[in-house]
Specification:
Two copies of one chain form a homodimer. With 303 residues, chain A is α/β, with parallel strands linked by helices. Helices cover 36% and strands 24% of the residues of chain A. The first copy, chain A, contains eleven helices and 13 strands. In chain A, strand 6 and strand 7 (94-100) form a beta hairpin. In chain A, helix 1 packs across helix 8 (235-248), helix 3 (128-136) packs parallel to helix 5 (157-164) and helix 9 (255-272) packs across helix 11 (286-300). The longest helix of chain A has 18 residues, at 255-272. Chain A starts with 5 loop residues before the first strand and ends with a helix. The model of chain A has no long low-confidence stretch (mean pLDDT 96). Chains A and B meet through helix 7, strand 13, helix 9 and helix 11 of A and helix 7, strand 13, helix 9 and helix 11 of B.
Chain lengths: 303, 303
């Protein structure tokens, strides 16, 4: 079946990252880039974003070769979103050294043509008013998933709650779920979030895996056990890409399909952290992905 | 098949605990008590420990009624081991207010008679030299599992490493695994521990579940999603009790049996935290346990 591509809106950035295993300078990154690099292995995907005049578009050629529709990435006058950060020895904490929003500060995209007809939409972690604006331009998508972060929960909660009334799934990490709801118990937190609008909630717990809360069932998937984590940057967006890339390729969104989507999210997140930037995500093929899905099955199955 | 009871050696204590859901004063606790309360639902179990003259032995009557062999608990002159602690709002941290070792300070048990013939032995978290001394008195047990803690890793590493050469499985929590090995990656940490002697390693991660590392396979089980956690005290020992209680009732220790044992550990740990002391563990029956095993299956299974 021919489907409209999965659509993602988010940041397209340059990241300088230092971890115990090395460093990269001005590598391609941002939520929309990690999401696209992960989801494009599973489904056609189109990216909406903005970059400055300084962006090395040739470094996105790999995504283009994989069929990612980059026509929605606008190149604007000014500098690209730049983030520099450093992880502590055991990835227990992360220090932001520089955040330079550049052209991203005034990002408010117009969704034209075929992209407005996307069946599945991922609203990456950007200002909730911009997420709402994108959603309003869409031609009745079947599945809308959004991400957010502590900053927006703190500064723009009203706009965020307004958005949540209209999304199907909120995907956030555990500390954000607690911050948003004031509930430390994640089962209780998910119920509060469902009260805000989303019928399901995905809570990401980093190396500890992720949880899916529907109205009347839950699913828990642990993290894969990796020999070496090189750089955790983009893990959450790659999880989202695996999750939605799998969903976008299915005919119906049943509980079993959501469970398997969580598995693909976990698998794509695991590849993302094994290199800097999207290097590992670009290298892997279907066989690598299926092998890791099967590993996750062996890791968790019991009689 | 009639088997010798599973044997546990550990602390038999009185705990005063305060959490956001209430408080108890001088309730029965300690590693051997939580372990026995959990394991006795699955297998015959005998407890080795020491208490002072002040211990309310009648409060262990419930365990006795469940068939726990308490003849190995010596009542000595002096005070019982007493611990008082308080958990922070969301159980993110725990403050020890009082630790009074009492008669436990000079605990060094003699294992006599039928107990020395136990097939499965759990060496609860006590001084590693005492753990070794107990192990030496045993008549070739088939499966020896030991626990330890940060204090012994810090203060008695030589004695601990000496013990580890002779146990089958080390069961510790994630921070202790990192402390013991200097490896932050748990897969690498488990390999270092296997190099110390144990052929398998169980790493407990609290609400995030637990990991089993064998030589050539791993198993990961997430925590159950609980409506309310009342008191996390004893969760790890109850996990150990569920794990070993299940194992002790099996004919052979195959990979599938270890996987299921991890599930029973998770289930018994989940009951333990739903009340203070061993109250909930004492209330549950086989049906409650099987229901939760089935919930864990539903929580984790995917196609």
């Amino acid at each position: 079946m021919k489907r409209n591509p999965l659509m993602v809106v988010g940041s397209v950035a340059l990241d300088s990252v230092k971890t115990q295993h090395g460093a990269v300078e001005r590598a391609v990154g941002g939520s929309a880039v990690f999401f696209a690099a992960a989801s494009c292995k599973l489904s056609p995907v189109a990216t909406i974003g903005v970059v400055g005049e300084d962006y090395p578009m040739e470094k996105l050629q790999g995504l283009k070769n994989q069929g990612v529709d980059l026509t929605g990435i606008e190149q604007a006058k000014g500098k690209s979103f730049f983030w520099a950060g450093e992880y502590s020895e055991n990835f227990t904490s992360r220090k932001t050294l520089i955040t330079d929003l550049g052209v991203f500060e005034h990002f408010n995209p117009s969704i034209g043509g075929h992209l407005a007809k996307s069946r599945c939409l991922f609203l990456g972690n950007i200002h909730p008013a911009v997420q709402s604006n994108v959603l309003e331009q869409m031609d009745s998508p079947e599945l809308v998933v959004c991400d957010t972060m502590n900053y927006w929960i703190d500064q723009n909660k009203k706009e965020l709650l307004d958005l949540l009334r209209r999304v199907d799934i909120l995907m956030i990490n555990d500390s954000e779920a607690r911050q948003l709801t004031g509930e430390s118990n994640l089962l209780q937190a998910s119920k509060v979030i469902q009260g805000f609008g989303p019928r399901s909630v995905v809570i990401k717990k980093g190396e500890h895996g992720a949880l899916f809360f529907a109205t009347d069932w839950c699913f828990s998937v642990p993290g894969l056990l990796l020999e070496k984590v090189v750089d955790p940057t983009g893990a959450g967006d790659s999880f989202a890409g695996g999750f939605m890339g799998y969903l976008s390729a299915q005919n119906a969104f049943t509980p079993d399909v959501f469970r398997t989507a969580m598995v693909y999210g976990t698998v794509m997140g695991s590849f993302a952290v094994e290199s800097f930037s999207i290097d590992m995500l670009e290298m892997i093929n279907e066989e690598n992905i299926l092998k890791r899905v099967s590993e996750l099955k062996k890791l968790t199955a019991f009689d």
